[in-house]
Design goal:
There is one protein chain. By secondary structure, this protein is α+β, with helices and mostly antiparallel strands. It contains two helices and five strands; from the N terminus they run ββαβββα. It has one domain. Strand 1 and strand 2 form a beta hairpin. The longest helix is centred in the middle third of the chain and has 18 residues.
Length: 100
């Protein structure tokens, strides 16, 4: 479970235009804007993946300021990017969340 991975701050799920906390820290930002941003980036990824011959586009990971973001199949993981072991987070997301 990601609860035991150092640097993982929280796990959330996007449902429609809402963000539901599954566990972890509360987000102190406008959740509607965050969901809009996440979904907008997914649309860009869907449109660009075929052009880049990437195959199926499932999601993305990025760092914004001091926050790590992994978004895949409507699940969002927030991390401290300096402390997290990405080798644990990304495979977990690929294995567990893609089958959700």
């Amino acid at each position: 479970m990601l609860e035991n991975v150092k640097g993982v701050l929280g796990v959330y799920q996007v449902k429609g235009k809402s963000l539901v906390k599954l566990w972890g820290d509360d987000l102190r930002i406008d959740k509607e804007k965050l969901v809009s941003y996440l979904l907008e980036n997914m649309e860009i990824g869907y449109s660009q993946a075929p052009k880049l011959k990437m195959g199926s586009f499932l999601g993305y990971a990025m760092i914004v300021d001091d926050t790590g973001i992994v978004f895949l199949n409507n699940y969002l993981i927030i991390t401290d990017p300096k402390k997290v072991n990405w080798d644990h987070v990304i495979p977990y997301m690929m294995k567990e969340v893609t089958r959700a």
